[in-house]
Design goal:
Layout lengths: L6 H21 L9 E2 L9 H8 L3 E5 L2 E4 L1 H32 L1
Antiparallel strand pairs: 1-3, 2-3
């Protein structure tokens, strides 16, 4: 029997941290370049997750060490996450159907 994987646990933890990061920027009102704030004002610190969100364009560096959440980019990223989840679920369903069909 294979050892249980921690991958689902890690995915949930990352998702919660991502939501907390984005919610912190929302609470600070940092949702446009004009309303960008320093990370500390939003209760955030530099992190790998923050860098990843910056690379995706979800969190934007407005200069002067001020950042904001690009809601349009977040909506696009969320749509991408939903599409990946749908494809994975479809693949699992197909594998289960084929498995049962073989008997």
């Amino acid at each position: 029997m294979a050892a249980p994987s921690l991958t689902p646990v890690a995915a949930v933890m990352i998702s919660k941290k991502r939501r907390a990061l984005l919610d912190a920027l929302r609470r600070a009102g940092a949702t446009s370049a004009a309303r960008a704030v320093p990370l500390a004002q939003a209760g955030l610190e530099p992190s790998v997750l923050l860098e990843f969100q910056k690379l995706r364009g979800v969190v934007v560096d407005a200069g002067g060490e001020r950042f904001y959440l690009d809601e349009a980019a977040e909506a696009q990223a969320a749509a991408g996450r939903k599409m990946v989840a749908a494809v994975l679920i479809a693949a699992i369903v197909v594998m289960l159907i084929l498995s049962f069909a073989r008997g």
